[in-house]
Amino acid sequence: KIKKLYNKSIKNLSGGELQKVSIVTCLLQKADLYALDEPSAFLDVEDRIAVAKFIQRFTRSYEKSAMIIDHDVQLLDLVSDSMVIFEGTPGINGHASSPLPKVESMNKFLKSLDITFRRDEKSQRPRVNKENSRLDKIQKAESNFYY
Q1: Cβ atoms within 10 A of the Cβ of 54, count?
Q2: Which end of the chain is more exposed for a tag (fewer CB within 10 A), N or C?
Q3: What pTM did the predictor assign?
Q4: How many other CB atoms are found less than 10 A from the CB of residue 118?
Q5: Residues 119, 126: contact at Cβ < 8 Å?
């Protein structure tokens, strides 16, 4: 999709197009660790999925690491192998976990919020269970907050 932007002036790009250019520009730099702060910003759902898969393919193909800060659970689900969970009060105190496997870290994070997720059968996308729904109760009883 980035090839479509080659002939466009940077000043005429939309927010989502600029975001894609920024991500590719970052990944074109020679580095062992890439820092991406909210790569899902300004992107629609389909582009978020494409970007997550691109980042994952890139890091695996070139044996590189990426530190991704984002609030989009779907993007994090697609791109992550492990995660660091931050807990505390911003600007006051906090604690960072050591890197944990994705399922373990998501379970820990979602448990702290008392939220459960399921994977949609058709789209395979993460979905929040309705509080006190049958699935929510089953997953909480099994301490399985993430799928």
Answers
A1: 19
A2: N
A3: 0.82
A4: 18
A5: yes
Indicate if 1 and 45 belong to the same structural domain: yes
**Do 65 and 85 fall within a single domain?**
no
Residues 42, 105, single domain; the answer is no
Given a contact cutoff of 8 angstroms between Cβ atoms, the answer to whether 130 and 136 are in contact is: yes
Per-residue pLDDT tens listing for the chain (147 residues)? 677 777 788 899 999 999 999 999 999 999 999 999 999 999 999 999 999 999 999 999 999 999 999 989 889 989 999 999 999 999 999 999 999 999 999 999 999 999 999 999 998 888 999 999 999 999 999 999 998
Tokens of 40: 């899902």
Candidates 90, 126, 84, 91; CA nearest to 109 is 84
Tokens of 123: 């789209």
CB distance 82 to 102 below 8 Å? yes
